[in-house]
Specification:
With 606 residues, the protein is an alpha+beta fold. It has 19 helices and 19 strands.
Amino acid sequence: MLPTILDLASLRAAYASGLTPLDLVEEVIARRKASEDPAVFITETPEDDLRAAARALMERAPEPNSLALWGVPFAVKDNIDVSGLPTTAACPAFAYQPEKDATVVARLKAAGALVIGKTNLDQFATGLNGTRSPYGAPRSVFDKAYVSGGSSSGSAVTVGAGLASFALGTDTAGSGRVPAAFNNLVGIKPTPGLVPNVGVVPACRSVDVVTVFAATVGDGVAIRKVMDGYDAGDPYSRKASPVVLPGSVLRIGVLDGAEREFFGNKAVEALYDQAIERAKSLGATIIPFDYAPFRQAAELLYNGPWVAERLAAVKEFIGTNADDFDPTVRTIIEGARGYDAVAAFEGQYKLGHLRQKARVEWEKLDVLMLPTSPTTYTVEAMLADPIVKNSHFGRYTNFANLFGYAAIAVPGGFGSDGLPSGVTFFGPSFSDDALAPFADAMHRAARSGMGKDRTAALPEASKLAETDDGLVTIMVVGAHLTGMPLNHELTGPGGKLVKTCRTAGDYRLFVLPNTTPPKPGLIREPGFVGQGLEVEVWKVTPAAFGRFVQNIPSPLGIGKVTLDDGSQVSGFLCEAHAIQGAQEITELGGWRAFIALENTKPRAAQ
């Protein structure tokens, strides 16, 4: 029995247990037929063709899971070429039969993936909402009244509804991220140039990016790595120069003050605040920053000369078939006629100035964390005000490709209205892999499931390990906590706070007598049922760790401590004999609470 959401780990486990690609294809066909959203696909891969592709895979690679994406079903946004299926860009008069697969599709097929169909989109990838298509408007998998997000609308819904394991989108202004947020998915937006665009109908050729919708960050990164690689046929293709982010404590920039705009959506604002707290709990340092230069760059994409790139992509077709365009799309593209070469250079100059201002903000940051979209709307509301409301979706997305950033969108929970929201992490060019572990940790901490299955547990098999930074992790529980007398023994040699968390519930805490400064003793008592104790996890260099351990006085020592998330770290423990007759403070929840209580007592009573 396959799960609702076809994540890679679950599918691989099913194949290892005897499922075949032919079995999988029959399940996909059944799910397509049962789908309640008629606007998801523009062209489905015919059933017999799907079966033939599964048989061909089994002949080519008979061993289950012998290829990176063996038997994995995926959908393709219909502005990306797939041999044997028409490319329409959501404009029937524009349709053509491609002679071969787009580079990314060819690479995915070679890795064993199976195309199940071409998906709906905002026409010519112009929009962030999913309503600008003659093939209908796909809907949020959580509420049919609401938009799915666009322009990669059908792609997101196929994954969110469990019709495909992953789907390809494209992203110029946020089309690979906004639909991910609206359907409780991960959206992987590579650095521009990392994934080639050969065989992709351009929107703005200089900033277009092929993206991945997936159930988990681990899945999305694995799929993106299959697509990576320089292709000289793409004039903007680049060879990657991976960037490593700090391995100790990430400095994460968040919105502050007047730049916090949610267009009245209190639910999304509350979820963003929860995400900030979640990032803190995972050890990040939160730093408010000035979003203004990023916002001003974002405005250039639709209110500047870059709109002329959209006209350049379809100039011959719109000259003969203007009436075949969606009215809103036509208005946007024809608006480009007001820009000339002078405006194009002036736009580049303005972008350059904004890039310099953004660099000032980056000096104090490692990563940005922004709401993927500040709000959402019903289809009815979007159609009533299509340009203004669409622009709201792009407030925190439009700048990314103009500045050349990598980005990963992850689910961030559900509001009181039952609709999902998400946050996006942005890093410098080619920080794609470096962004992934923390983004994955944030998705897991949100406990929001995958796609329409809100209760699904994220598979451990797809979990991404932190990048090895050569540092040693240590947990402290008492006098070494932040602000306590011995904290300098960690900060002095350059130690970094990773996170504040709690132990598992079977630990007890005591005040050790006759210690200066006062110290606690932590012991584990199997069978004891408590709430866990507040601790801090730090990272130090191996040399500092060695000196640190050497100076620990008896009866304290270093051993393995289990945290409330089930992980184990090296940390302070106490020999059991030392707590005989000692004051127990377990019920206070931690050493910090005990010290605070002691400080409230009159000195004569202490």
